[in-house]
């Protein structure tokens, strides 16, 4: 039998004002225990990544951070 796991993907770029609130909202949901959260960061130049890391430890979240180096190429490979 296959086990089902919910994965939430959050794309970010300079989201330091909102990312903590987003993570707290996810953690506050009653059915988010064991949920995998993927942060797809497009090389933020603010504190987004450090805020994500600090809050993920505090909230005990199952978190994976992916840093997209070539975000422009991923969005539109013809530019």
Describe what this molecule looks like in 3D.
Helices cover 34% and strands 23% of the residues. It is an alpha/beta fold. The protein has a three-stranded parallel beta sheet, with helices on one face. Helix 1 packs parallel to helix 2. The longest helix has 12 residues, at 48-59. The relative contact order is 0.23. The model has no long low-confidence stretch (mean pLDDT 79).
- How much of the sequence lies in strands comes to 15-25%
- pLDDT < 50 runs, ≥5 residues: none
Q: Indicate the mean pLDDT.
A: 79
Which H/E pattern describes the elements? EHEHEH
Classify the helix fraction into a percent range: 25-40%
Within the largest sheet, what's the order of strands? 1-2-3
Question: Any descriptors?
Answer:
single chain, 79 residues, alpha/beta, three-stranded parallel β-sheet, 3 helices, 3 strands, 34% helix
Question: What is this structure, in a nutshell?
Answer:
With 79 residues, the protein is α/β, with parallel strands linked by helices. It has three helices and three strands.
Topology (SSEs and partners):
Layout lengths: L6 E6 L6 H10 L7 E6 L6 H12 L2 E6 L3 H5 L4
Parallel strand pairs: 1-2, 2-3
Helix pairs in contact: 1-2
